[in-house]
């Protein structure tokens, strides 16, 4: 290969970086995010970090979404570029022919900040993704002094067609009231915390509000067969955690074979014992 052809290959590879399209659409950097930081992010993105936790229906027969884990512990300086990475990944799946909704969790102080909400709104609009693919993960209830700004931030996100999920439901009356008032699209319950104390059926019924409610119930941190059995008993809609599947890269998410996953999950369940005649 001649030096000229090698240079052409390098330039072509640089132009085809998956994150370049989203970066160009976003225009000028926000809130102190420099071009150098964006270039570092592109390099990080290209390494295909293991960042996306697959979410399945309760039976494990269908991939229903993904949780973008880096945003769970992002600092303020990392947040916008990681949010961009999350949007770019959802767009990458969409362009590849897979409709995989992505949950992008954000800290409470970010949702209550009009500057951050302005920047996030621009990113979401410029992504041009269909309604239903972007979900905002809400970690906790706001403190009373920022409650109004927090609610306004959520309403602005909802006006853009972003779904809202409450990520840490524990069953308190305050949470139930707030979830009902904001009409949450999804509620996540940590199954590892329910191993000794199962929530009542009435509480789950309150979350759904009615048999026709669009609210979806998620079982998170599913690590034991017992967790999956509890999720099934409570008729949860979705489950995720180590028992279902460990986090993957964004390209690996495209390779998930739903039927193979279901077979692997159900192989962990005890099989019925045959009777004395040898029949099941």
Question: In words, what does this structure look like?
Answer:
This protein is α/β, with parallel strands linked by helices and 280 residues long. The protein has one domain: TIM Barrel (Alpha-Beta Barrel), CATH 3.20.20. The protein contains twelve helices and eight strands. Helix 4 runs parallel beside helix 6. The longest helix has 20 residues, at 76-95. It is globular and about 50 Å long.
Please write out the topology.
Elements: H1 3-15, H2 20-26, H3 35-46, E1 52-57, E2 63-68, H4 76-95, E3 102-105, H5 108-111, H6 114-127, E4 134-138, H7 147-159, E5 163-166, H8 173-182, E6 186-190, H9 201-208, E7 216-220, H10 225-233, E8 238-239, H11 250-254, H12 258-266
Parallel strand pairs: 2-3, 3-4, 4-5, 5-6, 6-7, 7-8
Antiparallel strand pairs: 1-2, 1-8
Strand content: 5-15%
Q: How many DSSP-defined strands?
A: 8
Structural class: alpha/beta
Spans of at least 5 consecutive residues whose pLDDT stays below 50 are 17-32, 270-274
In CATH, the homologous superfamily goes by the name EAL domain
Report the biggest beta sheet as strand number plus sense, adding barrel if it closes: 8 strands, mixed, barrel
The number of distinct structural domains comes to 1
Number of helix segments? 12
CATH topology group: TIM Barrel
The overall pLDDT average reads 78
Biggest sheet: strand arrangement: 1-2-3-4-5-6-7-8
What is the terminal-to-terminal distance?
66 Å
CA radius of gyration is: 21 Å
CATH class: Alpha Beta
Characterize the overall form.
globular
CATH architecture: Alpha-Beta Barrel
Question: How much helix is in the residues?
Answer: 40-55%
Q: Determine the oligomeric state from the structure.
A: single chain
InterPro entries: EAL_sf
Protein name: Diguanylate phosphodiesterase
